[in-house]
Amino acid sequence: MLLHIHPDNPNARHIKTVVECLLDGGVIIYPTDTIYGLGCDIFQHKAVERIARIKNVDPAKAQLSFICYDLSDMSQYTKPISTPLYRLLKNYLPGPYTFILPASKEVPKILHSKKSTIGLRVPDNNIARTIVQELGHPILSASLPGEMVEEYTDPELMFENFEKLVDIVIDGGIGGMVPSTVVDCTNEPYTVIRQGLGEWND
């Protein structure tokens, strides 16, 4: 299904359709403030495995991260962090960043059995955050497979390419071509693992 959702005022009925699909173990393609991503409910193991198969990776070893609604949502899935780190996250989020942080026990084992960290995002995108808010917990964030970044900006093209692999492709407008900036905050000094859309000045 190709589902048009207004980027500024997401239609409640359409969001409900997406949330029901996620709770049912569905896989979606959705917009963020950077590139479109593959997503599912983090607690639906079979859906996580489906995404790993689409990407042809082992879910436990894959670089999968979460989309959270805000910092308090994020704090459930990470071990307690220092006040300076909290202030830093608050300064950069919502925004085009993925922060690598120590995973708490709330993170499903399938997502970090081989490592004790998790990537967390709060994108500056109304559609993604409204989905997470209505779902009541994070959704998985994974990049689409392959190298054809240009094809991943147009929802209609993505629907043509992935309609047999995913349940819903959300059309929230043309997407970006530059991924998020990934910052490892597990040790000081914090290090940029991937320079993406977000400027990093710390």
The residue-averaged pLDDT reads 92
**Fraction of residues in β-strands:** 15-25%
Strand ordering within the main sheet: 1-8-2-3-7-4-6-5-9-10
Order of helices and strands: EHEEHEHHEHEHEHEEE
Q: Quickly give the CATH architecture.
A: Alpha-Beta Complex
Query: Biggest sheet, in brief?
Result: 10 strands, mixed
Please work out how many helical segments DSSP would assign. Answer: 7
What does the radius of gyration come to? 16 Å
Shape: globular
Number of strands: 10
Class per helix and strand makeup? alpha/beta
CATH topology title: DHBP synthase
Helix fraction?
Answer: 25-40%
CATH class: Alpha Beta
Within CATH, the superfamily carries the name DHBP synthase
Could you characterize what this model shows?
With 202 residues, this protein is of the alpha/beta class. It has a single domain (2-194), classed as Alpha-Beta Complex (DHBP synthase). Helix content is 30%, strand content 20%. It is built from seven helices and ten strands. The protein has helices spanning 12-23, 45-55, 71-75, 83-92, 109-112, 126-135, 155-162; strands spanning 2-4, 28-30, 37-39, 65-67, 97-102, 117-121, 139-143, 168-171, 181-184, 191-194. It has a ten-stranded mixed β-sheet, sandwiched between helices. A hairpin with a 6-residue loop joins strand 2 (28-30) and strand 3. Helix 1 (12-23) packs across helix 6 (126-135). The protein is globular and about 45 Å long. The model has no long low-confidence stretch (mean pLDDT 92).
